[in-house]
Every structure is written in structure tokens, then in C-alpha cells.
Amino acid sequence: DGRLEGTAFTFGADADADQNNFNVEFESSSTVVLGFAYKPGEYEGTGQETFIEFYDCAGDADILQMEIEIFAGTSFIVKRGGTNRLDTILHVMKQDRWNYVEIKYTPHDTTGYMEMRVNESVIFTYSGDTNEGSSTVDCVRFVGVETPVATTDDRLHLWDDMYLLNSAGTTNNDFLGPIHVETILPNGIGSDNDFTAVGGLNWQNVDDVPTNDDGSYNTSLTVGDKDLFAAQTLAVVNGTVYGVKVNTEARVTEAGVVKIIPKVKSGSTYGDGTTTGIASTEYIGVESLFETNPDTSSAWTVSEIQSINFGYEVG
């Protein structure tokens, strides 16, 4: 089960768990801010487990920049390059309880910085040499359970409600606090239904979880054709909306490239995501993040999300 609703993410439930990692790669950044909900299961008998790692992967070799370990749930150990211990922070992380962890990291030889927060309390800051690579970071590694006894669900570490930011721009460039990521699915006809539906109504062909691939789908080759859908309402209605991400899966059925544009519509205004060329006959994911409402050019409100249309267009 997830932290507030839905499901959580876990890995490493076998004897090779020390090799189970989940990497998030992104464009090289001088500063990143990471947040996630974390519910530890059973800690390793020896106590010390790798938790989060930051890498510089831009060159020929993956360079471990910074590493954070958990020691028996009672403290965090921060290392540069995996060997140079910078500090040990006494902080209890009890098993089977959700916590919200946030980390800001700037790699640099002299003016580097790292700050760690748990449940909005600052538990660690460090200024100085935080760099083992090229003063950039482009990969975060979530490290799984490191003990072969972690074979049952109640021993696994759980992760949920993640965000990852850089420091660029004027929005979403610093700590967000304990956010919640909520999935809303199509639940009705939207303002545009130009694609040909195969297997059901347009919205019914894209509301399946997990994706039902070719059991039902929508198809078009006409540039400008759009499919937009009404959406489920949010379950969590208090707080700030930091963005809307539209996720689409698409493929082609013959040789060639077809472009797809993720879309949102608020009021009478359309918002366009990043145009992506599709040449694969296997389904691939296409994602676009809308940090502001295209109708107001301001942050989204809950009421605007409750009446949103979203979908895609042939580019």
C-alpha cells in the first residue's frame, strides 16, 4: 500500500538484493533537489545500509559523488565518493513508519552544498568539497534492501511520492515539502475526439491500468487530430498543485515516424507538451510536465484540476 492511497514502490526482495538499484537519470545539473516518502522495513543485521547515491554519469565512467547510508535506523552517514565520511547524524528512522525525506545537493570542490530534511526538519547541512566528478550531477540511485533475508513484504523498504528538481527557472526550483503524487485517469468524453476508437469509446481505450496495449486503442495519422478526455477528480483536495504530468503510451504500426504532442485543456485554452517523434512498433512512454495552467499562466488550483481535460495530438 502507498503512503496516502494507491501503491508504493519497492525492490530488492531476493538473495541478490545488494545488486538491486533503481536509477533516475536526467540532464546534467549543478544543483538538484530530491524528495520522497520512505517507509523502512527490516534493517540489515550489521546495521549499515546504503540509502541514496548521487552520480556524475556524463563521462565514460559513472562517478559516485555523494552517498547517504542508514545505520540501524538510528543515524545517517554522509560520504563523499563513498569513502570520505563527512558526518554522522543521529536521527531515528523507525521501521514501518512513513517519513518524508528531502535532499538538496550541489557538487563542487570548494563551494559544494548538501542539506537533508526529514519531515521538514533540517537534520544535516554541509558546505565545502562535495565533488568527485565534474561539478555536475545527472543520476540519482535509490538503493534496495541489502540483506538476503528480506524476502517478505513486511521487511521491504517502501518508496512513494517522489519529486526531483533542478534549481533553474522561477517555479519548482527548491524544497517543496512533503508532497503527494496522485494519479487521475480518463473517465469520460472530453472536448476533442478525432482519433478512431478500436475496442471501445475513446476514453475507455486509455483508462486501463495496467495498460492493455492492443486490446483497445485509439489511432490516427492525421496531423492536428486530438483526443482529449475528462478526468477523475482529485482525492486530496487541500494544498498547492505543483504541476500536472500527462503520460501517454504510443507506437506506430508500419515504417515511418509519427509525432505526438501531450495536451492539457483548461477553460478554453490548450497547453502543448513536448513534441515527440514515434518510430517504434513497440509501445513507448511519452511524458510532459505542465507546471502552470495555460489558461492563467499561474500555478494550478485544485478546482482547475477537477475540471481539466488532457490527452494528445498528432504533430
How does the SSE layout of this entry go?
Elements: E1 21-29, E2 32-39, E3 48-56, E4 63-71, E5 75-80, E6 84-90, E7 99-106, E8 112-118, E9 121-128, E10 137-143, E11 158-166, E12 186-193, E13 196-198, E14 217-219, E15 226-231, E16 244-250, E17 258-266, E18 269-272, E19 276-278, E20 284-290, H1 302-305, E21 309-314
Antiparallel strand pairs: 1-10, 2-7, 2-11, 3-4, 3-10, 4-5, 5-6, 7-8, 8-9, 12-15, 13-14, 15-21, 16-20, 17-18, 17-19, 17-21
Strand order of the largest sheet: 1-10-3-4-5-6
Spatial gap, N to C terminus: 38 Å
Number of strands: 21
Mean pLDDT: 89
Approximately how much helix is present in the residues?
under 10%
Q: What proportion strand?
A: over 45%
How many H/I helices?
1
**Unreliable runs, pLDDT <50, ≥5 residues?**
none
Helix-strand topology string: EEEEEEEEEEEEEEEEEEEEHE
Q: Indicate the structural class.
A: mainly beta
Q: Name the shape in a single word.
A: elongated
Cα-based radius of gyration, to the nearest Å: 22 Å
The biggest beta sheet is recorded as:
6 strands, antiparallel
Provide a quick synopsis of the model.
This protein is an all-beta fold and 315 residues long. Helices cover 1% and strands 45% of the residues. It has a six-stranded antiparallel beta sheet with strand order 1-10-3-4-5-6, with no helix packed on it. Strands 12, 15, 17, 18, 19 and 21 form a six-stranded antiparallel beta sheet that branches. It has a five-stranded antiparallel beta sheet with strand order 9-8-7-2-11, with no helix packed on it.
